[in-house]
Amino acid sequence: MTFAEANDIFHMPLMELLYRAHTVHKENFDVNKMQLCTLLSIQTGGCPEDCAYCAQSKRNKQRAPMERITEVEKIVAEAQEAREMGCTRFCLGASGRRPSPEVMDIACEAIARIKQLGLKACCCLGTLSEEEVLRLKSAGLDYYNHNIDTSPQHYKNIITTRTIDERMETIRLLQKHGIKVCTGGILGIGESNNDRISMLLFLKTLDSDPNLITINRLVKIPGTPLENAPDIEPFDFVRFVALASIMMPHSYVKLCAGRETMSEELQALCFFAGANSMFIGKKLLTVDNANFNDDMHLLQKLGIKG
Fold first, then answer.
1. Residue 174: closest CA among 140, 217, 145, 197
2. Which secondary-structure segment (H or E) carries 284?
3. CATH number, span 3-302
4. 70 falls in which pLDDT band (50, 70, 90)?
5. Using an 8 Å Cβ cutoff, are 285 and 44 in contact?
6. Rounded distance between C-alpha atoms, residue 194 and residue 277, angstroms
7. Spatial distance between the Cα atoms of 172 and 177, rounded to a whole number of angstroms
8. pLDDT (tens digit per residue) in 73-120
9. Which stretch of DSSP H or E encloses residue 43?
């Protein structure tokens, strides 16, 4: 698909766009089912990266304190609780450019234990070498989350400590070795609609579409360069969800950070446009997540099953 073609779809009359996206979504998924996942940070803070949106970044004047979970039993207990809430996937996140040897050891041991609970295991640990990819695969990892954050054109305005090509190289290594990929970006970090379209087109340059497209709405963290960024127009957010569903019809589309600031009506429009996965639980790394009881009540009202 060319930029002009994707741009035409993005700017279709909204009702027509929603109808097209929902039709594609219904052809590939059960529209009344939602994939539920939980994210746990096993290493928080102390990050040398300069991501302009992040509480853990060295650019943040009010950095999150350095914390690490080293007890695998604690991770397993959190995974057990997530399973009881209805989750089918449990994700481990860690701050930093790439995983330290200690983080790799903890993650690999935890993956095996998570799989014993009948959950799919996911990690978000940063840049990986091929050796690290193979080690995670050997441990039983199902999914790996590695966002590209924004378009290649806007990327340098948000991050300078690692390139978008480096991120894509990790994704290609994961795909090469058969680990499912979750990737996407953040909306509301000063990008234009053209950047949003370009980000999806950049993901289409991979050998195969990601298994899951992650869509975050910027959570404005005090002390970061983006703490006063203008809000994304809600209908543009919905349009992006719809375009992702149309461009990558076999990929799950996940609403991630920022959902706690979205109205029920906006979330429902996103679900109609193709969003069929979301994080539940108290926190997403360093930011609050939507209330679990509110989430379950919304899904019940919409007739969607987790």
1. 145
2. strand 283-284
3. 3.20.20.70
4. confident
5. yes
6. 25
7. 9
8. 999 999 999 999 899 999 999 988 899 999 999 999 999 999 999 999
9. strand 35-44
Answer yes or no: are the C-beta atoms of 278 and 296 closer than 8 Å.
Answer: no
Return the exposure string of 128-140: e unless at least 16 CB atoms fall within 10 Å of the residue's CB, then b. Answer: beeebbebbbebe
pLDDT of residue 290: 67
The yes-or-no verdict on residue 219 having pLDDT over 80 is yes
Contacts of 256 (CB under 8 A, 6+ apart): 184, 214, 215, 216, 278, 279, 284
Q: What is the pLDDT of residue 67?
A: 78
SS percent in the chain: helix, strand, coil, step 5: 40, 20, 40
| 71-76 CB contacts, 8 Å cutoff, 24+ apart | 72/106, 72/109, 72/110, 72/113, 75/40, 75/42, 75/106, 75/110, 75/113, 75/114, 76/110, 76/113, 76/114, 76/117
Do 51 and 293 form a contact (C-beta atoms < 8 A)?
Answer: no
Task: Spell out the SS3 assignment of 62-104.
Answer: CCCCCEECCCHHHHHHHHHHHHHCCCCEEEEEECCCCCCHHHH
The whole-number average pLDDT for the span 29-33 is 97
Question: Sign of the CA dihedral 100, 103, 107, 108?
Answer: positive
Domain ranges of the chain: 3-302
Q: Assess whether pLDDT exceeds 90 at residue 56.
A: no
Q: How far apart are CA 252 and CA 228, in angstroms?
A: 31
